[in-house]
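Problem: given the chain below (457 residues), write out its structure.
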Amino acid sequence: MKRRSVLNTMAEFLLMLFLVKCFQIDQSLADSMKANEIDKNRLRVKREAKPTERMRGSCCVCGVAVYKATFTSKWNKTTHPSDYPENLAHFSTVIGGTHADMHVVWELGSKASAAVKRFTEWGDTKTVLNKLSRKNYLGIIRIGPITRPNKPYTDRFRADKYNHYLSMISKISPSPDWFVGIDRLDLCNASDCSWKDNITVQLRPMDAGTDSGLKFKATNIESNPTQAIYQIKPNVPNHPAASFYNLKQKSVPPMAEFRINLVHAKGRCSRNTDPKAVTDCAVSRWSPWSSCSVQCGRGQRKRERSVITPAKNGGRKCPKISRTRTCRGRNCSAKVDCVVDSWSPWGPCSKTCGRGRRSRNRKVIENARNGGKKCPHLKGRSKCRIKRCPVLDCKVSEWSAWSPCSKKCGKGKRHRTRELIQKATKGGRKCPLLRERQFCNTFECRGRSKLSSISGK
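Solution.
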């Protein structure tokens, strides 16, 4: 009995030790979870501090402005007759919004994002709308699709002092990767702290640089490597087969018009007219980088921005308004082969029937240098045969009247003619004589005889 009681006592003691250990483990787990919760709260506080950073690019206006956006297509066969896609021409959904200056939907001279690539090539609006989220954009614009020319399509959006830049994009359909759009249009007048009103923007075609097609209905030709976004011009791309190619024009006519009208603004600011007020310098956004100053070797690229409001009364000074960076073209001493353009379409046949010749040509884009491969032939010729010529007999006019006789007596000559109306073709009846002669006044002349004329009597 004593042995059993000792065993029971030891079992109870071990059970107590186990319970105490479990309690300590639970307490440490609770403490660690509490510490993690504190860390999460700290992270949340840091993430919520982002809006205060956006105040650096804020405008001096107060309240919220409500705008009306109107998109009107000008694309039709009269304004853009070259390669006009009948019954297919339209613009996709117009997507845009108001945001702070730090956000970029698309930028001239920069490469398109994956969202812009999917939108301009396939019209995928979901990816672009995910980028235009309520976290970064105050007002979302969604208009269309635009299926009828000269018909206004409208929508309303908001802007405030933090989100006063407007960006917009719409795909040209059908097209490889062409679009129209607006990049960070400032709706704020920093000079008098007011909202801009009645803005009209003429929209010309842009190329996203992700597809190398030249025509509206070109097949998918992925650009490798991807090019930067550029504005399409009558000579850019410089190819006769391009839909907008026209060397007689200086610029492509606008394909659409985007109007912005201020509906109303809530909240007013009293303008500070104190001449001693401290004013910080305000500058515009950077322009795109210029092209390299040299074609080969080392050169420079440059971008600039302008001063909107100069600093006054000890305000923050203006930062640099120009920047340069080095760029490198091709190796100047390297061999450069001649580069020629694609062949132009074949010209008309030299004959309307039967066998003829036709020609085509191509231009030199870059001449050979430093012993590179010379340029090939720039002109091409080939035989052509439109249709078999009909078999035609020769046709002539009626005879003219006989001409006067060349002599009054003693056997003269006279002639008559007729004109050729139609030559005989192969297999047709040949032409007869066109001139005929005969003798006339064949009687002897009366008067002195030949003997008297010889003797001189």
